[in-house]
Amino acid sequence: MQAETTPIAPVARQRVPRRAVHGVLLLDKPLGLSSNDALQKVKRLLRAEKAGHTGTLDPLATGLLPLCFGAATKFSQVSLEADKTYRATLQLGVRTSTGDAEGEVLEQRPVEVVPQQLLQACMRFMGPIQQVPPMYSALKRDGRALYEYARAGIEVEREPREVTIFSIEVLKWQGSSLDIEVRCSKGTYIRTLAEDIGEALGCGAHLSALRRTGSGPVTLQGARTLAELEAMSEAERDACLQPVDALLADWPVLRLEAEDAGRFLSGMRRRTAHADAEQVRVYGPQPAAFLGSGSVRAGELISTRLLSPLEVQGLLNAQASQ
Q1: Helix, strand or coil for residue 109?
Q2: Per-residue pLDDT tens digits for 189-229
Q3: What is the DSSP letter of 133?
Q4: Residue 307's closest CA among 270, 264, 268, 271?
Q5: Could you give the CA distance from residue 64 to residue 214 in angstroms, rounded to a whole number?
Q6: 153 vs 6 pLDDT, higher one
Q7: 70 to each of 12, 38, 205, how far by Cα in Å?
Q8: Do 72 and 24 touch, CB atoms closer than 8 A?
Q9: What gap in Å lies between CA 115 and CA 36, rounded to an integer?
Q10: Is 58 a catalytic residue?
Q11: Vertex 66 angle, CA 61 and 69, to 5°
């Protein structure tokens, strides 16, 4: 006679409770991790209810990735539109199929470059320039990323678009390895810039390493690695959060008295003596009472992004408890 067995019930997976977290965390993204994967890891560590990143940084790139939580997600677009700063390493003399170190080698040429040539080549790409987006990019065409077409062996026509290179500084040049620092407008492909500099030098090049060091007013100063965050307590992680308005730190400030602050939060336009400005950050009477963003036109303050009264109160409570 067979003994009866009692089925073992599956162990219920314990759900970690989420909480309201407001602020910006400056992450020093590691090599090989996508921006979204990095975001999800930090979101879990903070147990945050709401999070978003500020534009993708390629898995092969490292460095500054501002992550927005709670009320700060309303201003993530600001960082997406901001100027960026990168440190790039170019491998001269080698062209690859992807324009970076992951692609197969298409061509090798001798590197016969003198310093004057290098400076002239960099100067050629200063200011407004036209760039054709690379096939190995996340840019969408008919609902599919360009890299999907590229992996299928299909090349599609891409329209050139204008970007601006504000500065290119040669940091280090040794043999066929060239380190440069680039400050540029949004939408600039450093991989394409590396290839173009290589062609201008007559030897070809590809991007062998890329590190983002700045985005708008924020830099790697104060940025944390995933390993550092994982080793911290929750309170220590919370202390790493920058204020909700961190991505707007270079915007003019406009302060309102209590009555006008309440009306501003309800979306009403307010009269102001502030000079006209495309974008301002708006505060209530308390120094910590960040209310949102707006613009000033012809003496009128017009809201663009507003915090909810609950979010404003949450920020004030958090400030008071510190």
Answers
A1: coil
A2: 999 999 999 999 999 999 999 999 999 999 999 999 999 99
A3: P
A4: 264
A5: 7
A6: 153
A7: 29, 17, 42
A8: yes
A9: 40
A10: yes
A11: 140
Q: Which run of H or E residues covers position 253?
A: strand 253-255
Tokens 């390993």 locate to: 227
Residue 156: other Cβ atoms inside 10 A: 11
Strands 277-283 and 253-255: parallel
Nearest to 244 by CA among 78, 49, 42, 17: 78
Query: Two tokens at 237?
Result: 């992680």
Q: Which residue has the tokens 């992807």?
A: 98
Question: For residue 112, which of 44, 198, 50, 189 has the smallest C-alpha distance?
Answer: 198
Rg of the chain, C-alpha, whole Å:
24
* pLDDT exceeds 50 at position 64: yes
Picking from 188, 62, 66, the residue whose alpha carbon sits closest to that of residue 137 is 188
**Pairing of β 205-215 and β 61-69:** parallel
Q: Is the pTM of this model over 0.85?
A: yes
Active-site option among 58, 196, 245, 260: 58
Strand-pairing partners, residue 300, are 271, 297
- Residue 5 pLDDT > 80, yes or no? no
Q: Which of 138, 128, 207 is nearest to 166 (CA)?
A: 128
**Count of residues making up the chain:** 322
Q: List the structure tokens of 120.
A: 């002239």
Q: Helices 190-201 & 115-123, crossing angle to 10 degrees?
A: 130
AA letter at 42: V
- The full set of domains in the chain, from first to last, is 23-82+218-239 (3.30.2350.10), 84-215 (3.30.2350.10), 251-321 (2.30.130.10)
Question: What tokens does 320 get?
Answer: 């008071």
